[in-house]
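>> Question from a student workshop board

For tomorrow's exercise we were told to take the sequence and the ligand below, predict the bound structure, and bring the output to class. My setup keeps failing. Could a helper post the expected result so I can at least see what it should look like? The ligand is alpha-D-galactopyranose.
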Amino acid sequence: MQMDLLNQVQDLFESSYGPRPNSEGIRRFFSPARINLIGEHIDYCGGLVFPAAVQFGTIIIAQPNGLGTVRVVSINEPGEVEFNPAGNLQPATPAHWGDYIKGVVVEYVKLNVDVPGLDVAIGGDIPGGGLSSSASLEVGIAVMIEALTGYSSSDDHFTNRQALSWLAQRAENEFVGVNCGIMDQGAIALGKKNHAMLMDCKDLSINYYPVELGDYSLLIVNSCKERRLGESAYNRRREEVEQALSILQPVFGVTALCELPIDRLDDALACIDDPLLGRRVRHVVSEQDRVSQAAAKLSSGDVKGFGKLLNASHLSLQCDYEVTGHELDTLIGLAQEQPGVLGARMMGAGFGGCGLVLIKTSDVEQFSRVVGAAYRTEIGYDAKFYPAEIGAGAEEIVSSSHGFQQ
Ligand code: GLA
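>> Workshop helper replied:
Here is what the output should look like for this input. Compare the format with yours to find the bug.
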C-alpha cells in the first residue's frame, strides 16, 4: 500500500516540478501516524502515556530547487503552497494545511538553520482523525529539514529526536495555534517497530514495551465523523485542567495533575467545588493510574486485563472528560459487545475520528461485518476498520527495502 503512495507522490512531484532525469538530490521520507494504547488527554498534565507509531503515515519527497522559495504540493489537498523560508511567515486566515509546514520552518529559522529553497511533494494515507496526521506532517518536515541541512541538535540520535519532537510541538502550539501536548510528536519521532512507548510527557523519556498479543490484534476503527483539532473544545479542556491544578497545587504541592496518586483522588475532589472540574480531575488521575496498570499487564502477558483498562478509559473519556460524542460512543459501544473483543476505546483528541479495539484476530472479519452494519443503521453512514501494525518512527527512505509493503 505504501509503495502505491510513494509512487503517487513521485508522480505528483514530477508533474508539478517537471521530470527529473537526474534523481540525485531527490530525497524521500516517511513519517508515520500514531495510535495510543491508553493515556488519553493526560500528556499535557505531565502524564505517562502509551502510544506507538503505525504503518500509515505521510510520504515527503523533496529536492533543493536553488530558487530561494519552498514550494509544496500535496496529493491530499488542493493548491500549491509557496513561501520564502527566511521571510516573515505568518499563519494563514482561515487556517491552511501549509501552516503546519511553515510553522516547522519558522522553528528551524529561529535556530539559525539556513533552510534552502525546496520543491516538495507530500501525500498521506492516514485513514481518519485521532491518528495525528498533523504531527505526522510536522515531524516529517522536521526530519526532512535536518536531513537536507545536516542540522542536528545532538550527536545522540535519541536526544536529537527528543529536541525535534519539542520543536514540532512548538510549531503546532505557536504557529498553528493548537495547544497540543507532546505525545504525538514524540511517538512519531521516537517510535520503534513492534513496540509501544511508555512515554513520560514531562521529559520525553521512554520505556519501550514489545507488543505481543498472542491470538489478539489491535484494530483501528474509524467513526468517519469529521472533527477538527483546532476547534475550541481541545484548548478548553486544557484550560479546565490548568484551573483545577491552580486549586490543587497549593494543597498537594504538585506541579502537574498527574503527580496526584490515585489514593489522593477523593481528597483532591473534596477541594473542588465545581463538579465539571471535579470530573476532569477524576479522568486525569484515574487515566494515569490505568496507564501504569496497562504497562504492567502488557508486560506480564495479561491481555484480558489490558482490555478491561481500555473499556474503563473510554468510559472515563465519555463521562468525566466528555470528549467522545454520539458516533464514537456508538462505535465503541458496539465494539465492546462483540465476541472476541477484550476492550475498546476512543483515541486521540476525540469528538469524532478513530478508536482502538483489542480483538481476537480470528474474529476481525465477523466484527467488521456486524459492527459495520449496526453502525450504519444507527448513524447513517459507514465506519471503517483497519488492522494496526506497529512500525518505526519517521525516517528517510533509503532504499526500496525500507519495510514498505510492495
Ligand atoms: C491530540 C493531541 C495530543 C493529546 C491527544 C489526547 O492528539 O495532539 O497531544 O493531547 O490529543 O490524548
